[in-house]
Amino acid sequence: MSTNKTVAIIGAGPVGLAAAAHVLERGMTPIVLEAGPEAAHAVRQWQHVQLFSPWRYNIDRAAARLLADTGWNSPDPDVYPTGGELIEHYLDPLATKTKLSGVIRADNRVTAISRRGVDKAKSRGRERAPFEIRYRNGKGEETLHADAVIDISGTWFSPNPAGSNGLPALGEQAFADRIAYAMPDVRGSRRSRYAGKTVAVLGAGHSAVGTLIDLVALAKDVPATQAIWLLRGNDPARAFGGGSSDQLAARGELGLAFAALVRSGQIRVEAEFGVAQITEADGRLRISTGSSPDRHVIADELIVATGFRPDLSFLREVRLQLDPAIEAPVALAPLIDPNKHSCGTVRPHGARELAQAHEPGFYLAGMKSYGRAPTFLMMTGYEQVRSIAADIAGDKEAAARVELELPETGVCTRGGVESIAALPGCCGGPAPARVDSCYADDANAKAAGKSGCGCA
Known about the structure:
Elements: E1 6-10, H1 14-25, E2 29-33, H2 61-68, H3 83-96, E3 104-105, E4 109-115, E5 131-137, E6 140-146, E7 148-151, E8 179-181, H4 191-194, E9 198-202, H5 206-221, E10 226-230, H6 249-264, E11 268-270, E12 277-281, E13 284-288, E14 296-299, E15 301-304, H7 333-336, H8 351-354, E16 362-364, H9 378-393, H10 396-400, H11 440-447
């Protein structure tokens, strides 16, 4: 095994920091380039969001070993942290109080990657040439050479646009000041922007669901607040998740709560609504499908929660093999194809699926490795970088070994008992864990020997 290697890691998020910890444990030298002003810059954009998984699934083992040397106390493994708590109790201490503090270079945005003295078209001597990473900071443009590169730069800052064809809707850029992406903090730091407004939310994933639930909660304080759910598909129940069958209980509860709000009419639903054009009508947004006859909604604000895509612009000189549809490594793509898989049916994977056959030493990992697929779990990323670090060090046996057992959450993208038709009258909040009931009152009714939902 060869340990005298320098490994460039792009991105200082949870998986990037975990990668650095594993590289250190292997006796190699990590250098972490982070575009933001500090580690976990992307997480800080969604720190108001509660994670679906408890602490036990959000702490990497190599990172925990580094933290143990500082006297760090691990959080309660069964508690569900917010993004802010993830930063405060794990990521900040890991980035500032361990050996990683000396290898993280913040405010360094990678602009290009190639091989020293070898362009993309040249094959002779390519494998022996070190990687050349160009990055920009306050001093200007600088260069770093490394034996291997792990790109874990994520996708948070490259969200998908509103257009149903993958392109920005006509007018989307013109009204950028009234359009937000992903999951803005509508009840906290962005409350003044959304309170008392009609807000359209486009998307069917957990970001859209969480935002719509928050808007309904905001409407209790500011009744003029109205939420419109723009759904490209025709089955709202697909967004409700696995309910009580979901082993990530917080995600199941979110789906159940959302289903009840939709059933009660607190969220207006516009199904089969593919956005094509955004114009202005009496100072408000007119969001239309462009179909004939034309369908449209009028809103003050639009939140686009349609997922993300990888930024491949700085990888033009890297010999990448990516799936043409998902933009994930070709060996990984069939395992994560969202047309076939949910986050629980993706088996653990590592260096073998993430390496680039025509660019030895280069790996995509973390959310970026999933391309446009939305099924990524943080614990999957930790297993990825454990395997990659072993592979770079030459420990092929450890690289091939699977050291992760995922919860069975295959139901997370299909409707079940929590469909609208199965929820008449269900109320009282989410049912207790491991109880076969739609809501708390349903569980109480069944415990009393009654049939059906039991909610009048």
